[in-house]
């Protein structure tokens, strides 16, 4: 066996020992459906990741086990600079619930050089969780990449508007998340996002109207206005 195989087996044993029915039941209450799950909290998974450290080969091996907890662990231990576009596409095809999808985007994919290309590519995919991944990744980049210029975010508003009529729950919520976080970056993006949201409110599609109302309510609210004013002063 390789070192990665040995470490993967040890990690699975650690996770299995900490799995509980209570946690598995909690997953179901939150709409997290996984064929193979021990029932381990994210806190415990993060604790294990700190013990394991960064290890790209281990991340790949963990993912390939198919266990929910192993796939939640993999983004914590992977090395963003070693992640390829092909790996991102392969993992995205395996997404079978919103938690693994969002976790991979929020803790790994947004730190790779392939993020923007995947956002555009996945935004038109038919699979529900791949399409959600486009907007979960956009939301993650909007939140985490403080140095990114406005232009790619302005361009992303067209992707949001095109996807907004999709009535599927996890896509709809992902699109809303992305629009709201783009609109929170600065005043210029806020104005552009609110303009997009107001167009969505006039859409004939229920999902688009829901997204538009959700975004306008948040992006024109007092909390966001204060945050944007503080950033402008800074």
Structure description:
- The protein has 234 residues and is mainly alpha-helical.
- It has 2 domains: 1-78, no CATH class; 99-234, Serine Threonine Protein Phosphatase 5, Tetratricopeptide repeat (Alpha Horseshoe), CATH 1.25.40.
- The chain has 14 helices and no strands.
- The termini are far apart.
| CATH architectural category of the largest domain | Alpha Horseshoe
DSSP strand tally: 0
List SSEs in N-to-C order: HHHHHHHHHHHHHH
Work out the helix count: 14
How many domains? The number is: 2
Distance between the termini: 54 Å
The CATH class of the largest domain is Mainly Alpha
Q: Major sheet: size, sense and barrel closure?
A: none
From the spread of the alpha carbons, the general shape counts as globular
What fraction of residues sit in β-strands?
A: under 5%
Query: Residue ranges: pLDDT <50 for 5 or more in a row?
Result: none
Can you tell me the CATH topology of the largest domain?
Serine Threonine Protein Phosphatase 5, Tetratricopeptide repeat
**Rg from C-alpha positions?**
19 Å
* SS class: mainly alpha
Give the mean pLDDT. 97
What's the helical proportion of residues? over 70%
Structure at a glance:
With 234 residues, the protein is an all-alpha fold. It has 14 helices and no strands. It has helices at residues 3-18, 21-29, 42-52, 56-64, 68-77, 85-94, 98-107, 115-122, 128-144, 150-163, 169-182, 187-201, 206-219, 222-233.
